[in-house]
TrEMBL record:
This is Fe(3+) ions import ATP-binding protein FbpC 2. It is an enzyme of class 3 (hydrolase). Pfam families: ABC_tran, TOBE_2. GO terms for molecular function: ABC-type ferric iron transporter activity; ATP binding; ATP hydrolysis activity. It comes from Rhizobium tibeticum. Keywords: ATP-binding, Cell membrane, Hydrolase, Ion transport, Iron, Iron transport, Membrane, Nucleotide-binding, Transport. Residues 4-236 form the ABC transporter domain. Belongs to the ABC transporter superfamily. The gene is fbpC2. Its EC number is 3.6.3.30. InterPro entries: AAA+_ATPase, ABC_SmlMolc_Importer, ABC_transporter-like_ATP-bd, ABC_transporter-like_CS, ABC_transpr_FbpC, Mo/tungstate-bd_C_term_dom, P-loop_NTPase, Transp-assoc_OB_typ2. SMART domains: AAA. GO terms for biological process: quaternary ammonium group transport. GO terms for cellular component: ATP-binding cassette (ABC) transporter complex.
């Protein structure tokens, strides 16, 4: 079931077309990540959903209720939408308890119980209740902000770069914790992030924006492995792109013959993710494909650059584990796992 429908939304600021004809459905109980380069319109889209901006055209519908359409504009505080932003935006003069309980009726008999339940939900210790925000770490502050937003029982939660101020390890923990909390509360969420890996691991649906347009929306697997175009492919991760000739479910390229989806014919461009490529030492004149020109040791993930024999292409950069790294000058072939993705031409 669809909870949120964004239908042909456009927004212009002076000469800047911030959003152009955006349509996106968000399923109830799901998590959507919106990604895109800086200035692509992510924040504008979130602000329109929240009700802080009115679109120039198009509609926003939440759970069957029209929130924005021409002159119709349900005010932000009546939309039932929760927001957690980058800085958490806690009230500095209030305790954790009062931050979480902000908006609850003062004398309500179950006020304390509800605050404690929310604190438990975001996995914070009860001795934090009397602290002020400045006595908490960044991650703890984000949890309080999440608890406060959850306390209002939102129909939809908007997460605007909520993890970006946290360092890597904590960021990953928080991402998992937030996904867990949202899932157990059955709350639909939209996350805006600059971190592609974060988007791919957090979401059921990834929406890619570029210059105010929605380029592609789909499962993390589909946008990563079957990106619509080169730019999207490179935005979501490293990619090896090669010219090839396709026929009957295979493509011949500088790496040899690789599997592709059936239906592509003739000259095409294929894409492989570097982790699909395995560097194999190969001395055979018949099967070796190139030479290692550079090896960069990087701990868990190392990079091997292979210059292909007889092909006027820049060296191919392959991510590999540190186990059995080849050496500079080694002759190698490149084995491919899975299918290569073919752009267009079908
Ligand atoms: N209030 C405003 N007035 C004028 N232009 C604006 C306003 N808000 C956004 N813009 C412009 O609209 C475009 C989209 O901005 P938006 O903030 O939505 O992008 P973004 O993808 O969130 O960027 P970032 O990743 O840098 O946060 C940009 O060109 C921006 O300069």
């Amino acid at each position: 079931m669809t909870l949120l429908t964004i239908d042909r939304i456009s927004k212009r600021y002076g000469h800047v077309q911030a959003l152009q004809n955006i349509s996106l459905d968000v399923a109830a109980g799901s998590r959507t990540a919106v990604v895109g380069p800086s200035g692509s319109g992510k924040t504008t889209l979130l602000r329109i959903i929240a009700g802080f901006e009115q679109p120039d055209g198009g509609q926003v519908t939440l759970d069957g209720e029209l929130l924005a359409d021409g002159p119709v504009a349900v005010p932000a505080h009546k939309r039932g939408i929760g927001i957690v932003s980058q800085d958490g935006a806690l009230f500095p003069h209030l305790s954790v308890a009062d931050n979480i309980g902000f908006g609850f009726e003062r004398g309500a008999p179950d006020r304390e119980r509800r605050i404690i339940d929310l604190l438990d939900m975001v996995e914070l210790d009860r001795n934090m209740l009397i602290r002020r925000p400045h006595q908490l770490s960044g991650g703890q502050q984000q949890r309080v902000a999440l608890a406060r937003a959850l306390g209002r029982k939102p129909r939809l939660m908007l997460l605007d770069e909520p993890f970006s101020a946290l360092d890597t390890g904590l960021r990953e923990n928080m991402r998992k914790a937030v996904a867990r909390v949202l899932q157990s509360a059955g709350i639909t969420a939209i996350l805006v992030t600059h971190d592609q890996a974060e988007a791919l691991s957090f979401a059921d649906q990834v929406a890619v924006l570029r210059e105010g347009r929605l380029i592609q929306a789909g499962s993390p697997q589909s946008v990563y492995l079957q990106p619509l175009d080169r730019e999207t492919a490179l935005f979501l991760g490293d990619a090896v792109m090669l010219p090839a000739v396709a026929r009957n479910g295979f493509a011949d390229c500088a790496l040899g013959r690789v599997a592709v989806d059936v239906g592509h014919q003739g000259k095409v461009e294929i894409m492989l993710r570097p982790e699909q490529i395995r560097v194999v030492p190969d001395q055979s004149e018949q099967t070796y494909r190139g030479r290692v020109v550079e090896v960069e040791f990087g701990g868990a993930t190392c990079t091997v650059a292979v210059s292909l024999e007889g092909v006027a292409l820049p060296p191919i950069m392959i991510k590999t584990s540190s186990v059995a790294l080849p050496s500079q000058g080694d002759r190698v072939r490149l084995d491919i796992a899975g299918k290569a993705h073919v752009f267009g031409n079908r």
